[in-house]
Amino acid sequence: MSNRKKEPSGCGCANIPLSVIIFILAGGYWLFTQKDNLVITNLLSQAQQITSPIFNFTPNITPTSQTTPQVTPTKIPSPAAPSIAKITPTNQPTPIKIAIPKTTPLPANIWEKKAIRGIYLSRYQVTNNANEKMIRERVRYYKSQGFNTIIHGVWGNGCTMYNSQVMQQTLGYKSCPNLFKDQWLDWLIDEAHKQGMQVHAYFEKGIKIDKNSPIFDLAIQKKWVVPGVDKTYPSIEHYVLDVEIPEVANFFKNILVEFVQRYPKIDAVQWDDYLGYHAELPGKVDRTTKLTNFVQQMITAMKQANSGVSFDICHHNPYWAKRYFAADWEKWNVDRVFIQVYNDANFQEELNYVKKYHGIAISEAQFHRLKEVVSNPEIKSVLVFPASGKPEETASTLNGLIKNLK
């Protein structure tokens, strides 16, 4: 028998351990069954590479055969492109943020912040032949135009705009000549309060009358007027009822007391610069002290009759009022003062007075100054006097200007 070593033949499988053979067979079977999943995983890897740079995050996608086919590299980025463009500064209308304070410096509600936004209605502009429906509609109209107060004439030229027992007993007239309904002011007050508005009773012309007054002849006969003609306003000659005469003083006090008792829900009464004399009346008499005493007594009587009513005046600044009208109204004990600024002369100087008191009264002639008036927080209230005699047009014009203030 030979001692030469035998050479191995074949593949040598007989020499591989049985455990290794089993492991190889099992691995091969697993790879065969998972071949489809290996392809999808490769696709998911590609999709992740496309998606991540656009959305700047790593999608948390579970690699399952049901969900992954919907994630395609061509459709995911397309809706994102326009949204990215919208937030890109170069594509945005960049002037918006910096332009707002420059083009619209006034807040939208700056006008509404004024305590009183009033409009004057002369005694004949609403009352004449007006029924309840008309009265209430007019109130709502002024509300829609941004006003919260109606300052309505109830007295003027020596007579009332309601049936007055004081008028009848003293002068033989019950009212001014007018086709008004007896309840017109009740309707106006009621509707205004329903709309959250106030009504201030305007005593037009104050203690002055002209030749058209129904009491003119009687006043001349009784010598109730101050000697001379009041030419404060050159367009019309006025005559001043002399409140230094007790009968005249009592007449005015009784009229005011009667009014606030008959209309207890009225919010205020207002008198203007016609509550005063005229510096150029003959005699060079200083009537300042006696006028002050009269007004104080009238206010006291009114407050005793109805303490809830405010006594207001709309007058010239205190210097002019005292110097030219004998109206030292700083001593009258009034509740509120509004300064008349009906022309542009010394407008800025007048504002210094306005800021110290309760507001300003302007006409259409000052509408070009509306921005500086409305935007000034020191001007607490704004009253508008329709010098044109067309209050509805004035209200509409003002409302349009307010909306367009820049």
Structure description:
There is one protein chain. With 406 residues, the chain is of the alpha/beta class. Helix content is 39%, strand content 12%. An eight-stranded parallel β-barrel has the order 1-2-4-7-8-9-10-11. Strands 5-6 form a two-stranded antiparallel sheet. Helix 5 packs parallel to helix 7. The radius of gyration is 44 Å and the shape is globular. The N and C termini lie far apart (123 Å).
The biggest beta sheet reads: 8 strands, parallel, barrel
Q: How many distinct helices?
A: 14
The global form is globular
Question: What is the topology, as strand order, of the major beta sheet?
Answer: 1-2-4-7-8-9-10-11
H-E order: HHHHEHEEHHEEHEHEHEHEHEHEH
- Calculate the terminal CA-CA distance, rounded to whole Å: 123 Å
Number of strands: 11
Q: Whole-number radius of gyration?
A: 44 Å
| DSSP helix fraction | 25-40%
Mean pLDDT: 80
Structural class of the helices, strands and pairings? alpha/beta
Write a brief structural summary:
The chain has 406 residues and is an alpha/beta fold. It contains 14 helices and eleven strands.
Reconstruct the topology from this structure.
Layout: H1 18-33, H2 35-55, H3 80-86, H4 95-103, E1 117-121, H5 132-144, E2 149-156, E3 159-160, H6 165-171, H7 184-194, E4 198-203, E5 208-209, H8 216-221, E6 239-240, H9 246-262, E7 268-272, H10 288-305, E8 310-315, H11 318-325, E9 336-340, H12 347-354, E10 359-363, H13 370-374, E11 382-385, H14 391-403
Helix pairs in contact: 5-7, 6-9, 9-10
Tag the structure with descriptive keywords.
two-stranded antiparallel sheet; 8-stranded parallel beta barrel; globular; 14 helices; alpha/beta; 406 residues; disordered N terminus
